[in-house]
Amino acid sequence: xxxxxxxxxxxxxxxxxxxxxxxxxxxxxxxxxxxxxxxxxxxxxxxxxxxxxxxxxxxxxxxxxxxxxxxxxxxxxxxxxxxxxxxxxxxxxxxxxxxxxxxxxxxxxxxxxxxxxxxxxxxxxxxxxxxxxxxxxxxxxxxxxxxxxxxxxxxxxxxxxxxxxxxxxxxxxxxxxxxxxxxxxxxxxxxxxxxxxxxxxxxxxxxxxxxxxxxxxxxxxxxxxxxxxxxxxxxxxxxxxxxxxxxxxxxxxxxxxxxxxxxxxxxxxxxxxxxxxxxxxxxxxxxxxxxxxxxxxxxxxxxxxxxxxxx
Length: 311
Prior knowledge:
The structure is a single chain. By secondary structure, the chain is α+β, with helices and mostly antiparallel strands. The protein is 29% helix and 29% strand. The strands form 2 sheets. A 6-stranded antiparallel barrel has the order 1-2-3-6-5-4. A 6-stranded antiparallel beta barrel has the order 7-8-9-12-11-10. The longest helix is centred in the first third of the chain and has 32 residues, at 46-77. The model is unreliable at 1-18 and 23-33 (pLDDT under 50).
């Protein structure tokens, strides 16, 4: 019995030595994959893989979805602008013309010249040497932004002191620096001027025609500045001044209303350009009020009184 047992043991050892790399039945059994009770190999299921993917990328996915929603909302609420066509522009202009009241040509002319119009006062000493009082009112036009003003000679003739009031309300004394009696013109220099003083634009009367629209701006009876509109009624007229008994020539006749106090004011085109300095009215009676005929000195003569080229 002992021999048999030894023989069997020795055969087994020899077999193991002949196949040293071959695993035993025990080893083979232990290395086989485990199976589930249903007979399928155990391992990671597809459901557990999706759960792992979702847990890992859930936050980035939500952020991306929110960003996409914001972009889509912006596109819906703010569609790209349509290119404007000429038809759109014409339609908008037509709508504006139909629904808006535009300023009249006279209103636009007044707005241009108004900053250059000044009130001119002839001042005299008050009673018993008191404060000076206003004895006469006229109008002036700033033609150089250094405070050089054109007015009528008869508006300041004999004045003890001349005072001007600019469009912005600044009051200043002024000195008569020149005169041209043949055209009833005087040149004033203001002692103080506004910082933003605007000089009037002058225009040649060479192409002025009867019927052209004009606006007269001044201080009739001290009221103003006032604007009246009319047309050019004649050119190269003559008028005998009742104040100075001078014959004025080469005058512009117009029918825009003017009255005492308008003297020295501006006669302007619809573009606000000065073509003349208002100087006189014609009335067959001795009354000093307007009956439809006014006269202005052409701006060429007025500029010559200052000694500067008008254009």
